[in-house]
Amino acid sequence: MAVAFTQEPSSPNGTQSSIIYVVNNLITSPQAKYICDIKESGASDILVRLKQPSNNSNLGVFEISDILHDYIEYDTPWLIQSPVTSSENTKTFSIEFGEESSTSISGSLTISPNQINDEIVVYPAVTDDEEGFNWDSGSYLNNYLSNSPDDLYVKSSEYATLSLPNVSGSTWSNSYQIEVYDDDGQSMVLTNIFGLSISPTTAQQRLIHIPTGPQNLKGVLPILTGDTWSYYDITVSPSVGDSIVKRYYRLDDCVEQNGTRFAFINRLGVFDYYTTELTNTEEQSFDSQTYRQTFVNYSTTDGTVPYDRSRRGETIYNKTIETSLTAQTDWLTTEQVDWLIELFQSPEVYVQRGDTFLPVIIENSTATLKTNPKGQKLFTYQIEYRIANPKRSRR
Length: 395
Known about the structure:
The structure is a single chain. By secondary structure, this protein is mainly β. The protein has two domains: 125 residues, Immunoglobulin-like (Sandwich); 210 residues, no CATH class. Helix content is 5%, strand content 44%. The chain has a seven-stranded antiparallel β-sheet, with helices on one face. A five-stranded mixed β-sheet has the order 2-9-8-4-5. The chain has a five-stranded mixed β-sheet with strand order 10-16-15-12-13, with no helix packed on it. The N and C termini lie far apart (71 Å).
């Protein structure tokens, strides 16, 4: 009797959910164990082999989300100028189950792998325990992988992208229309800027990143790099389902010291972007390691020890520099706060400096989400962070 499934996770799924397989029918022999082999789809090499004996009901329970997450990398599409599919953000794994056993307690093992198997597509999405074991990927069918508000804000000098999942796995066909408006709400430009039709043959083709920031679109819409526009709408029209729209309002770009452009991995495992509008502050702290040498030069090389008033006593042999930065948001709505908590929770955060994105560490240890719902309608955040690669000191 071969090993069989009694429970399988849904697909697509999130690697930061609980991905649970339950199998039964383990052979009743000495040293018997279930075997779970994890491979990338189409590959022969085993990434990980798990073994476990059955429980009292002859069942084997395997929770493999952490293992799958170790083989996922976050895409970094910040600077793209046209739509691209994923590189490492989405993968298909083959999950194979078998068994091993022996004829005696001390005998050699007979291994029978890959009696049953399942293929699962995964994104690095998060599901909290109270939301259930599986990531509800279907809720993002024909929608963006983002919990951001429909109205976003961007400077003419900034980059942005949006990511779309093909959770159905069928051929998808999308067109991207951009309409630019002036301060009076009058249309300045209307263009069907991109079109894409993909029949996914790999997991990577089930995720697409599209350029949405002014700097990403400057090659086809140079008007966005100026200051004559007020806002623009990006409309994605999939072959199945309703069109989806994001609106980008222009922030003032004239004061260079104002605002910080953050790029952060959201709960769905792709990048979101947010600009704080108010003035930045920067502080540097210094830590010096010193030793004290004697005023008399015992290491003389010429046989004399003259009086040397400038001889240093306490000497710095190492100095470290820590730079702390603060970005101040303007007033935020509850919807914005619910989304921006993902910035504080994010495992990877960057700030835009010109055409470069620098990795940073968010220093805030707390963030207020809710206060009095009647008296407190707006919020503001002071985001404290430091550059992940600190300044070098002089020695």
